[in-house]
Write a structure and sequence with these properties.
493 residues, Amino acid/polyamine transporter I, disordered C terminus
């Protein structure tokens, strides 16, 4: 079989009609999934990091650049999600447009987006949790609040080496347990948490606006320090690449396509509505935060809490921290859901072992995949620092977006007659601009991040050649012989 073997659109659409994952999500659930995934570590943690180290007050421009790239990619996602309403997101789209090898590459790459994103968010959750516990007089040993090889602040102000981020790892286990129980329960919990964190962010903007000082926003674009990515125009672009992490999540809506009641209509709504709402909210929060606190003082784990403390409204600080905890929990929920659904699709195609596609007989969720993925994410959250995780997530997501944009152009040529309930406007120019905008942000990331991506993709290519390629070929041969049904096999009890 050729490495360019594709799955037909008709076959994928037929798969969407077969029994499997439970269809329980409407447009509100899907939009909430997008918002729940987008509003997370990016706004609660990376806003301070990117402002203090890269862009200063011009972080607002970085957000606009990142949002523009996401909007262009979002239009492409919306077309493909309505056209191919099955689990798998960019992996499935790549299989239909570019073939098995590219599909494997994007599926392997999406582990960087979803699994490591969940780990990153867990580390951010840990920062807010430790801060809140400190406010309540509960002190967690600092060595167990930071990754190995990093430093944590002890009660007396001294620095101690981190051993393992215990709060980050425990919260991932809780998220995984909720996802095993069921998609409807998980989605309902996420919707409630989304309402809470959006309300608190709106309150932050409303209360903090009165304390904005013009001098904190001047100069709006700090001069470059002489090093690429540290302020100036290059700092804006580096800040956009870092803050791109803040927008990751709208694409997670597409991973739940096979659990949507009316995916052709509701997937575009969920993707585009969540992106639009989050963009407006992000820019408002960034302007107020940077107007309250000088950007040099925002290189902290809980920048919004620092912003509230600077206003003197100390009563609102615990509210922000509690909201961050719930908000980051919902983001982890969506990211881990997205990863397990991609594994589910790859398993059904034969590229991964069958256990990744095994559905629980009662909950109809990929429970073994969720437990295994949750275990790996737990270890990563405990051992890896947030800066390294964030950059890997950003470059993995940007690569996925580039391939989705290209996929729209390819499928317009190879499958022009397929019904598209939502059509991306301005093809091919919108997809081309989307791909170029994502590539520009990838270029602005550090060389070490590129090196790690190359190593990760090389490892994936070896696994594909030695295991996945042959297994997928054998599965196709059996299917073509009519000896194997295309339904997921429940395992366990």
């Amino acid at each position: 079989m050729s490495l360019s073997t594709t799955r037909s659109i008709a076959d994928l659409q037929d798969e969407a009609r077969r029994p499997g994952l439970r269809r329980a999500l409407g447009p509100l659930n899907l939009t909430a999934l997008g918002i729940g995934s987008v509003i997370g570590t990016g706004i609660f943690v990376f806003t301070g990091t990117a402002a203090s180290q890269n862009a200063g007050p011009a972080l607002v421009l970085s957000m606009i650049v990142a949002a523009t790239a996401c909007a262009l990619a979002g239009l492409c996602y919306a077309e493909l999600a309505s056209m191919i309403p099955v689990a798998g997101s960019a992996y499935t789209y790549a299989y239909a447009s570019s073939g098995e090898l590219v599909a494997w590459i994007i599926g392997w790459d999406l582990i960087l987006e979803y699994a490591l994103s969940c780990s990153t968010i867990a580390v951010g959750w840990s920062g807010y949790f430790v801060s809140l516990m400190h406010d309540l007089g509960v002190r967690i040993p600092p060595a167990f609040t930071a990754a190995y090889g990093t430093m944590a602040v002890a009660a007396d102000g001294t620095m101690v080496p981190g051993v393992f981020n215990l709060p980050a790892s425990l919260i991932v286990l809780l998220v995984a347990a909720l996802l095993v129980i069921g998609i409807k329960q998980s989605a309902d919990a996420n919707t409630a948490l989304v309402v809470l964190k959006v309300a608190v962010l709106i309150a932050f903007v409303a209360l903090g606006a009165a304390y904005v000082r013009r001098e904190h926003l001047t100069p709006f674009i700090p001069p470059n320090t002489g090093e690429f990515g540290h302020f100036g125009v290059s700092g804006i672009m580096r800040g956009a690449a870092v803050m791109f992490f803040a927008y990751i999540g709208f694409d997670a809506v597409s991973t739940a396509a096979q659990e949507a009641r009316n995916p052709q209509r509701d997937m575009p709504i969920g993707i585009l509505a969540s992106l639009a709402i989050c963009t407006v909210l992000y820019i408002a929060v960034a302007l107020v935060l940077l107007g309250i606190v000088p950007y040099q003082k925002l290189n902290v784990a809980d920048p919004l809490a620092v912003g509230i403390d600077a206003t003197g409204l100390t009563w609102f600080s615990p509210v922000v921290k509690v909201s961050a905890l719930f908000g980051l929990f919902s983001t982890m929920l969506v990211q881990l859901l997205g990863q397990t659904r991609i594994f589910y699709s790859m398993s059904r195609d034969g590229l991964l072992p069958r256990l990744f596609g095994a559905l629980h007989p009662r909950f109809r969720t990929p429970w073994l995949s969720t437990m295994l993925t949750g275990g790996v994410v737990t270890v990563a959250a405990g051992l890896l620092p947030i800066g390294l995780l964030g950059q890997l997530v950003s470059i993995g997501s940007l690569l996925a977006f580039v391939l989705v944009c290209i996929g729209v152009i390819v499928l317009r040529r190879t499958a022009p007659d397929v019904v598209r309930p939502f059509r991306c406007p301005g093809v091919p120019w919108v997809p081309i601009l989307g791909a170029l905008a994502c590539v520009a942000q990838m270029v602005s990331l550090p060389l070490k991040t590129w090196a790690r991506l190359v190593v990760w993709m090389a490892l994936g290519f070896v696994i594909y050649l030695l295991y996945s390629r042959g297994r997928a070929r054998r599965r196709r041969e059996v299917l073509e012989g009519g000896a194997l049904a295309e339904t997921a096999v429940p395992i366990g009890g």
